[in-house]
């Protein structure tokens, strides 16, 4: 079952394709009560993102 939500521009962090590498993007801060959007959690990495976000 899929869930949907609306997010404003203030609620998301846009990571441009050029200008920031994946390693730097991975160091972005996520605080308690923040939302994490994972697009497609079928892979092991996607599953890890969900587990880390739940912790």
Automatic annotation (TrEMBL):
<dbReference type="InterPro" id="IPR036291">
    <property type="entry name" value="NAD(P)-bd_dom_sf"/>
</dbReference>
<protein>
    <submittedName>
        <fullName>Uncharacterized protein</fullName>
    </submittedName>
</protein>
């Amino acid at each position: 079952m899929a869930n949907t939500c609306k997010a404003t521009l203030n609620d998301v962090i846009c990571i441009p394709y050029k200008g920031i590498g994946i390693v730097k993007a991975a160091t972005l801060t996520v605080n308690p009560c923040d939302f994490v959007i994972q697009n497609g959690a079928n892979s092991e990495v996607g599953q890890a993102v969900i587990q880390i976000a739940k912790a």
